[in-house]
Amino acid sequence: MKRSCLLLVMLVTMPLIPNPARAKVVTQSVEYRQEGTVCQGWLSYDDAVKGRRPAVLLIHDWMGVSDHQKSQVEALAALGYVALAADMYGKGVRPANAQEASAEAGKYYKDPALLRARARAGFDELASLPQTDPERMAVTGYCFGGRCALELARSGAPLRAVVTFHGSLAASAPADKEHFHAKVLALHGADDPFVKQEEVKGFMDEMRAAGVDWQLVQYSGAVHAFTDPRAGNDNSKGTAYNAAADRRSWRAMRDFLEETLAK
Amino acid sequence: MKRSCLLLVMLVTMPLIPNPARAKVVTQSVEYRQEGTVCQGWLSYDDAVKGRRPAVLLIHDWMGVSDHQKSQVEALAALGYVALAADMYGKGVRPANAQEASAEAGKYYKDPALLRARARAGFDELASLPQTDPERMAVTGYCFGGRCALELARSGAPLRAVVTFHGSLAASAPADKEHFHAKVLALHGADDPFVKQEEVKGFMDEMRAAGVDWQLVQYSGAVHAFTDPRAGNDNSKGTAYNAAADRRSWRAMRDFLEETLAK
Questions:
Q1: Chain A contact for B180, CB < 8 A?
Q2: Which end of chain A is more exposed for a tag (fewer CB within 10 A), N or C?
Q3: Based on the number of CB atoms within 10 Å of its own CB, is A181 exposed (0-12), middle (13-18) or buried (19 or more)?
Q4: Contacts of A212 in chain B (CB under 8 A)
Q5: What ipTM score was computed for the predicted complex, to two decimals?
C-alpha cells in the first residue's frame, strides 16, 4: 500500500513540481580556440539533468571574463539552460580598469571580422557540447557583449534569440534578411549616455529594414551597466547599478528565452 | 486505502499546485454614476477567494464597452484580481463603427476634465467594492483607454500601476511629481501610425521630467490595436491584430502587476 501511494504521489506531482533538491549546477572553467587564440570562459549546467537542452552563450562587458560572468551562467543553469560565458579577449587578457578595457574592446570594435570570428568560436564551442541542443541556442550580451551578440546574429549564426542588456546597438554592417535568423530583445536604460536614443532609433530602423522579430524595452532612471552591481549607484557617472531595471530585465529575458527556446 | 492515498496526494500537492477546479470566476454587469451619467461596465472576480485582493480597472478602446472587455476582465479575474471594465461613454452609448467611435472619443479628448472625472468614477466604484484592497489598485487601458488610464494617474488617483496597450500617450497636462503616484508600463506597437514615435518620445520626456518609474516596450511589426482580434490582420490599415505582440504584452502586464500589486 505504501508503495502504491508513493507511486501515485510521484505520478501526480512529477510533471508539475520542480525539484530543486535534485538540481546539481556545476560550473567549470573551459578553454577553446579561435584560430591561434586560446579563450577561457565559464561553463555551467545542471548535472542532474540528462540529455541535450537549450543553450545560452553569454558575452561579457568590456571588462572581460571574471567571477561576475561565473555567477551569471550559474543563474542561467539554474533556469535549465547550459550556459557558456564566452571569452572575447583571449586567455589571460583581463583589463584592470576602464582605460585598459576601452583599449581592449576598441580592438574588436575596429575589426568587426575579428569580433565576429571570436564570438562565433564561443558559439561553436557551446554548440559542440554534449549537453547542448544546437537547434535551440540563444546569445545574451552586456554592453560591449551586446554588440558582440548582435554581430554574431548579423553574421548568420543559427541562433533563435539574442538578448542585449545595455548593449551597444550600432552595427558594423546592417542586418540583412537572408542571414539574420534570431528574434531580438534589447533591454535598454532610457538614460544611457553611452548608447543614446539616436543609436536606439538607428537600431530600430535597422531591425525593421531587415524584417527581424524584435522588441525593445526602455527602463526609466537606468543608465549604462544597470545590471552590474560593480558599477556603483551614481547615475551621474553614466554607469550605475539599478536594482529595479536589473530585476525587470532578467525577468524579461526569462520570459523571452522560455518563448524562443521552447521545443 | 484509496482515501488515504487521496489525502496524501492532496497534502503533498496542495501548497504547490494551483487548483483551477476551485476557482469560480463570476462576471456581472454593474452600474455606477459619474454625476448625472449612468455608466455600465463589467465586473469580474474569483468568488472562491475570500477577502480583499488587488484590483484592476480596465478602460476600453474607442469602441466602448462590449463583450471584448468582458473576456478581458475575466482573464484578469483568473489571475486573482478583481477587475472592473469601466464605461467611459455612459450606459447605452455604444458606437457602431469607427466614425461614431471617433466622434464619441473626441468628446473626451476635447474635454480632459470630463475624461478624468469619468475615469475617476470607475476607479471609485472599483475601490468601494468589498473584494477590493484599495491600497493595491492598477489601471490598464487600450488605445483611447490608454489615454484615460494615464490621465487618471496624472490627475492624482492613488494607483500603484498603469499599463497601456497601444495607448494614446499624449497628455492634456503633463504629469507632475506631486500628483503622479503610479509606476507605468507602456506597451507599444513599433509601427503604430496613430501613436507615432514622436508621441512616444514626448511621453518619455514627460515621464522623465516628472520622475515617474516607467517602462516602455516596443513590439516590432505591430500597429495600432495589436491586442484586438477584431482588428483583422492587415497592417496597412494601421490597426491590426498581432498574436505575438498580444501574447508578449499580456505576459509583460502579468509580470508588472505581480511586481507592483504585491503586498
A1: no
A2: C
A3: middle
A4: 220
A5: 0.91
Contacts A–B by Cβ distance under 8 A: 81
Q: What is the sign, positive or negative, of the torsion defined by CA atoms of A146, A149, A151, A153?
A: negative
* Phi and psi torsions of A157, nearest 5°: -60, 140
A17 pLDDT more than 50: no
For residue A227, which of A79, A119, A37, A72 has the smallest C-alpha distance? Answer: A72
CA distances from A160 to A88, A116, A156, A212 (A): 21, 17, 11, 12
Q: C-alpha grid cell for residue B215?
A: 517602462
State how far the Cα of A146 lies from the Cα of A144, in Å rounded to an integer: 5
In A, minimum Cα distance to B242 occurs at A213
Measured CA to CA in angstroms, residue B184 lies from A115, B158, B213, B216 at distances of 38, 13, 6, 8
- Is the predicted pLDDT of residue A205 greater than 90, yes or no? yes
The mean pLDDT value of chain A amounts to 93
Judge whether A1 is closer than 8 Å to chain B, CB to CB.
Answer: yes
Beta carbons of B26 and B34 less than 8 angstroms apart: no
Dist CA B69 CA A94 (whole Å): 56
